[in-house]
Amino acid sequence: MKQVVQNYKSGELAVLDVPVPGCKPGGVLVRSAYSLISTGTELMKVSEAGMSMLGKARSRPDQVAKVMQSVATNGVPATYRKVMGKLDSYTPLGYSLCGVVEQVGAGIDDVKVGDLVACAGNEHALHAELNWVPKNLYTPVPDGLAPRHAAFGTVGSIALQGVRQGEPQLGEVALVIGLGLIGQLVVQLLAASGVRVVGVDPDPVRCELAERLGAAACGDPGSAAVEAAVAELTGGHGVDQVYLAAGGGSNQPVELAARLCRDRGRVVDIGKCRLDLPWNAYYEKELDVRFSRSYGPGRYDPEYELEGRDYPIGYVRWTERRNLACFLDLLARGSVDVGPLISHIADFDDAVETYRSLKDGDLKAVAVLFRYPEQAVEAAAPQVAVPAVNVKRGPVRAAKTPVRLAFVGAGNYATSMLLPHLTQRDGVELSTVVTTTALSAANAKRKFGFAAATTDLDAVLGDRSIDAVFVVTRHSSHAELTRKALLAGKTVFVEKPLALTEDELAGVLAAVEESGNDRLQVGFNRRFAPLLQEVRERFGARTGPANLRYLVNAGRLQHGSWYLQQGTEGSRFAGEGGHFIDTASWLLDADPVSVYAVATSGNEDLQVVLRYPDGSTATISYVTTGPAGFPKETLDLVADGKALRLDDFVRASVYGRKRWVSSRLPKARDKGQNAELAAFVKAVRTGGPMPVPLQSLVATTAATLAVQTGLAAGAPVTLAGAR
């Protein structure tokens, strides 16, 4: 097998052919799928190896002390031979990986051959094709978690143990100094714990990344902005805890911690920075200085790590292995996102060149992964089910005039894009508005003329006089509220997305089947836009496959937007992407059969390629980094020697044997909400078909979910059951 090694004396890096390790009792043999380069710890070792002997001595005074002790005991010649022999040997690199169990040793009963596991340890989770890993240094990977994300398990455990040492509490404010790989993970863990975080790093790119991942503010160590943010968030008292995740020889992090920490605050050292504590500053504030020992309790204990002797959970709640499992669980549930931290994925055969690029600064990265050639874990193509709609419809009665509507939620979209189109519509009565807070319900009642306002959803669902319910709440509640309203016999209009998971989608369809009520509309309004309707008609029918390109200049979100709460509300594309998939499918008059998605490293820009039954393709470029002045949506469709173009719902054109261009007079952007609501109200009033078939809504939702599945798997996703 192949393994990355380094000669500490010469600094040479190499990928060597070495024997396959034996599968000893008490552990498993793991074939690597992905291993993680720690751009802090490992590059420090690589840099030290390239130093002169004097430089090596200066960088490791602890080892120099051991050498001097050996000289005193064994003499200079013997010590010299011992030291040179050790230096002039190959040493391994790596300590965090994910792979597949290839053999199971005696005494192991918690995993089997073929299981995916995350592994830890600088002697057992090496950059090598195969590793033997003892029981307490691996843990099974949760279902659905991508192997390349699970490879972060060890560094995640280091960050998690550091946060545990800080003992954060809800509502506290923390300072994270150093926004490298560990610092970025600490920021996310603290934010997930209800702590407001200020980050410090001289690199503005890393500061911006930390803010996207949950930090309240970030800045350069010497900037006034950091001190101002701390003062604002803490009322001038200082942060409750400081996490030192920086490296290097500067004492600035320690001094900054003392200056910005509150009286009797906590300072936790996670990284390896200089620790010349300014005595007066730390004494006067009585600061509590703590150290975080790597992955957690059990580290450096051979009985725990090598012999598999666990600590009783009643005495040691969080051991190395439990920290590893906990971090993987946080990843699987979306509480922590490592995707934006991956700067580069290199083939394992290119390991030496990758290290050189990192060392020389040609490759600037937060995290780099090695991808191994044999990845049985990803052999099977991922799938997302497109459930078939099975319903024995009950009788559909036309509503009385006026049609009585209830709104669940009265946020910005409801009050700006939906309710203004309904307030003056003939034959419509706004019956009841339901919100979680009394005042927002009262405001909506006053502004739009609802007959009643309440916080009691059950009362609305039980009111037989209400014909239809609009669900316009946060994304995480859409599926459950829709399910309840369908079971109550209501016609439902739910804003996108219909569901954030396959289970949520299945729950909605189970409610349809149980109730016989399939009267459902999702707010995919673009297909109702007058200009898009006209340009589609002028394009006419097609006979051959089409190529569609849809550029969405989504722009950046303001800090604090609930759209950024991906752990609970899903990704931005999960919330908005259904619009664009539905538009593409409507223009192509089919539902997609597969989805392939790739993301730009470090941000939320996506390329989503949809394939359709007749060979047509639609490419959706969803970008958040474009200029504010550029149009938000531009669309092109080419087929049969014809081309259709839509420019941000302001102008459109068709090129063929004849050319048609819409009016060049400026128009307001009409994205179809008014026509969509008119069609919905008509269906409720007459009892006629819903504006969009339910199977189409399901297919669009499944395709939207498949984007996240594809990003996690790094492979195309088949839409199983797609028609």
UniProtKB/TrEMBL annotation:
GO molecular function: metal ion binding; nucleotide binding; oxidoreductase activity
SUPFAM superfamilies the record matches: Glyceraldehyde-3-phosphate dehydrogenase-like, C-terminal domain, GroES-like, NAD(P)-binding Rossmann-fold domains
Start and end residues of each Enoyl reductase (ER) domain: 50-367
UniProt keyword list: Metal-binding, Oxidoreductase, Zinc
Cofactor: Zn(2+)
Keyword Ribosomal protein attached: no
Keyword field contains Metal-binding: yes
Pfam families according to UniProt: ADH_zinc_N, GFO_IDH_MocA, GFO_IDH_MocA_C3
Record-linked InterPro entries: ADH-like_C (IPR013149), ER (IPR020843), Gfo/Idh/MocA-like_OxRdtase_N (IPR000683), GFO_IDH_MocA-like_dom (IPR055170), GroES-like_sf (IPR011032), NAD(P)-bd_dom_sf (IPR036291)
Family named by the database record: Belongs to the zinc-containing alcohol dehydrogenase family.
Classification via PANTHER family: D-GULOSIDE 3-DEHYDROGENASE, NAD-DEPENDENT ALCOHOL DEHYDROGENASE
Protein name: Oxidoreductase
Organism, scientific name: Streptomyces curacoi
